[in-house]
Design brief:
The protein is an alpha/beta fold. Helix content is 43%, strand content 18%. The protein contains 7 helices and 6 strands; from the N terminus they run H-E-H-H-E-E-H-H-E-E-H-E-H. It has a 6-stranded mixed beta sheet with strand order 3-2-1-4-5-6, sandwiched between helices. Helix 2 runs antiparallel to helix 4, helix 2 packs parallel to helix 7 and helix 3 runs parallel beside helix 7.
């Protein structure tokens, strides 16, 4: 390697060390909530519905009320991680753990989501595996005051361990699991109300867990953005208020 090559290598190594140092320092800051968002990209989700999820999540995070709640305590920021899931071996990290102390960071995060394109994955629905995978990622954030896993889904588990099969796994201890249930369109353009109710019951009985865990419902993928706004406000705004209200006398 010539002198020029050595110089470039040294500069690259220094830049990498600096980047790692900055990220490490950011993650060392106090954290009020670690929020892991898992998006269903199984075979029942077509290309249009895929974009409604990714763009809907980005728009929900951009919503003024949601952004205000996320940025309410910049000294103890929310950390966000986003992943996709489908089959037993198909979990794809879209956004690794990112502290969000300011609007610039939030804008970068939403730009990443809007710029994400779909990749091939197993079309099955390994819901139990997705829960454990998300919980393992949350285990990387032990210093956060609260750790929340959000699972979006439009169907029941049909491969791998079922949600009830993993309920006693130690990695789930101390984690709140919330759900966003997505209804399916009928061939004629309506919504299968009965199926939504059945799926909501399934997620409420077998998926959610932990303090104040809940299920939010989107009538279909077109309603995903609005449902995600409601869910994020309930999670993040409630967490901020609980830390800023005076202690009860």
């Amino acid at each position: 390697m010539g002198q020029h090559g050595k110089y470039r290598a040294l500069v690259g190594a220094a830049a990498l060390a600096l980047t790692c140092g900055v990220v490490g320092a950011a993650l060392a800051d106090p954290c009020r909530q670690a929020l892991a968002l898992g998006l269903d990209v199984s075979g029942s989700v077509n290309e249009r519905e895929y974009r409604l999820q990714l763009d809907g999540l980005a728009a929900a995070l951009d919503h003024p009320d949601v952004a205000s709640a996320i940025l309410a305590m910049p000294g103890t920021p929310v950390r966000v991680m986003v992943f996709e899931w489908s089959g037993p071996r198909d979990q794809r990290l879209l956004l690794d753990w990112t502290p969000v102390p300011d609007s610039a960071t939030l804008a970068q995060l939403t730009a990443t989501l809007r710029g994400t394109t779909r990749t091939p994955a197993n079309p099955s629905t390994a819901l139990g595996t997705a829960i454990i995978w998300g919980a393992q990622k949350l285990a990387q954030q032990p210093d956060c005051w609260k750790r929340t896993l959000d699972i979006s889904g439009d169907g029941k588990s049909n491969t791998g361990p079922r949600p009830q099969d993993v309920a006693d796994q130690p990695v789930l201890a101390g984690i709140t699991v919330n759900a966003l249930v997505i209804g399916s369109d009928t061939p004629g353009g309506g919504v299968r109300t009965g199926e939504i109710g059945d799926l909501e019951t399934y997620f409420r009985s077998l998926v959610i867990r932990g303090p104040a865990a809940f299920v939010e419902v989107a009538e279909d993928f077109a309603d995903y953005q609005a449902a995600m706004i409601r869910k994020l406000l309930r999670e993040v705004e409630g967490m901020a208020l609980s830390q800023t209200l005076p202690d009860a006398q």
